[in-house]
């Protein structure tokens, strides 16, 4: 169970709540810090006729932290092992005019968490599905990684067998996108070792315990990051990010030096084009840096 950091209540218990329209509400919940929940999520959890959770204990704990009373409502458990069967129960409640709020243990439902079969079944039967967006380990990791975010691929959990994991990583690392992987804290060291066998210089980021008290982020070439990870692995929730194939880190000082030299010989447009090709960066980026240099002259 993912622990939630305790904080003072942020929402007083309300005797009356604005009724929700019938339907399934997919509620994103904190991945660590309890205050990361959105105000709309609190409203939905307070007003829904029925609450559904991957882990009922986690949801009860979250409700308690934020002062949301059950007021006689029941919490139905839906997880990987019973989602298909319980989907019919939820649909019957929605058809009866009730609002159902579903929460996975932490983060956004359906994203490496149960909820897909439930949502798909509801949609197939004409039911309404509402997203209540909020915390996501994927986006949180992407935000702090410092890797390109214009195109990324969430690949889920890596296969457990070592040979299968290597083959899976080789294919993933060939894609033209930042790869985001959920990995076991005990296997992260071994996964990094495999990654180093494929490309030890690939820029890699390991995020541990995002939004929690002991949050850590390791950045650098795969070989350097691997050396920072204890042999026994890490503790807590881990997200691994891998830069796209062919990506390089360019020192801005090198770019500036190259542009200054070329601007003495050619136009800004031509100098930007030469630098962009030489360092593998967008022409616009080189052009903007060149403009800054020219203004200083």
UniProtKB/TrEMBL annotation:
<keyword id="KW-0949">S-adenosyl-L-methionine</keyword>
<dbReference type="Pfam" id="PF23016">
    <property type="entry name" value="RsmI_C"/>
</dbReference>
<dbReference type="GO" id="GO:0005737">
    <property type="term" value="C:cytoplasm"/>
</dbReference>
<dbReference type="InterPro" id="IPR008189">
    <property type="entry name" value="rRNA_ssu_MeTfrase_I"/>
</dbReference>
<comment type="similarity">
    <text>Belongs to the methyltransferase superfamily. RsmI family.</text>
</comment>
<dbReference type="InterPro" id="IPR014777">
    <property type="entry name" value="4pyrrole_Mease_sub1"/>
</dbReference>
<dbReference type="InterPro" id="IPR000878">
    <property type="entry name" value="4pyrrol_Mease"/>
</dbReference>
<protein>
    <recommendedName>
        <fullName>Ribosomal RNA small subunit methyltransferase I</fullName>
        <ecNumber>2.1.1.198</ecNumber>
    </recommendedName>
</protein>
<feature type="domain" description="RsmI HTH">
    <location>
        <begin position="251"/>
        <end position="292"/>
    </location>
</feature>
<dbReference type="GO" id="GO:0070677">
    <property type="term" value="F:rRNA (cytosine-2'-O-)-methyltransferase activity"/>
</dbReference>
<keyword id="KW-0808">Transferase</keyword>
<keyword id="KW-0698">rRNA processing</keyword>
<keyword id="KW-0963">Cytoplasm</keyword>
<dbReference type="InterPro" id="IPR053910">
    <property type="entry name" value="RsmI_HTH"/>
</dbReference>
<dbReference type="Pfam" id="PF00590">
    <property type="entry name" value="TP_methylase"/>
</dbReference>
<dbReference type="InterPro" id="IPR035996">
    <property type="entry name" value="4pyrrol_Methylase_sf"/>
</dbReference>
<feature type="domain" description="Tetrapyrrole methylase">
    <location>
        <begin position="24"/>
        <end position="225"/>
    </location>
</feature>
<keyword id="KW-0489">Methyltransferase</keyword>
<comment type="function">
    <text>Catalyzes the 2'-O-methylation of the ribose of cytidine 1402 (C1402) in 16S rRNA.</text>
</comment>
<dbReference type="InterPro" id="IPR014776">
    <property type="entry name" value="4pyrrole_Mease_sub2"/>
</dbReference>
């Amino acid at each position: 169970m993912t622990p939630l950091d305790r904080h003072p209540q942020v929402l007083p218990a309300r005797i009356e709540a604005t009724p929700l329209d019938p339907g399934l509400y997919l509620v994103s919940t904190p991945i660590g810090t309890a205050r990361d929940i959105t105000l709309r999520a609190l409203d939905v959890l307070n007003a829904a006729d029925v609450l559904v959770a991957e882990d009922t204990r986690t949801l009860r704990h979250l409700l308690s932290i934020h002062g949301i009373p059950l007021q006689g409502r029941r919490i139905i458990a839906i997880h990987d092992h019973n989602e298909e069967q319980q989907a019919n129960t939820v649909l019957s409640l929605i058809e009866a005019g009730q609002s159902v709020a579903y929460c996975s243990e932490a983060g956004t439902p359906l994203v490496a968490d149960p909820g897909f079969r439930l949502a798909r079944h509801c949609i197939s039967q004409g039911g309404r599905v509402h997203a209540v967006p909020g915390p996501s380990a994927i986006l949180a990791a992407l935000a702090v990684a410092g890797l390109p975010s214009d195109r990324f691929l969430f690949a889920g959990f890596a296969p457990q067998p070592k040979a299968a994991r290597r083959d899976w990583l080789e294919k993933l690392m060939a894609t033209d996108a930042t790869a985001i992987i959920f990995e076991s804290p005990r296997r992260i060291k071994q996964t990094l070792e495999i990654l180093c066998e494929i490309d030890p210089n690939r820029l890699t980021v390991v995020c541990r315990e995002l939004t929690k008290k002991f949050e850590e982020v390791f950045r650098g070439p795969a070989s350097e990051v691997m050396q920072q990870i204890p042999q026994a692995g890490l503790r807590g929730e881990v997200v691994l990010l891998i830069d796209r194939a062919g990506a390089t880190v360019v020192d801005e000082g090198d770019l500036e030096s190259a542009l200054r030299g070329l601007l003495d010989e050619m136009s800004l447009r031509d100098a930007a084009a030469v630098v962009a090709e030489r360092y593998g960066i967008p022409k616009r980026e080189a052009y903007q840096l060149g403009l800054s240099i020219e203004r200083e002259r």
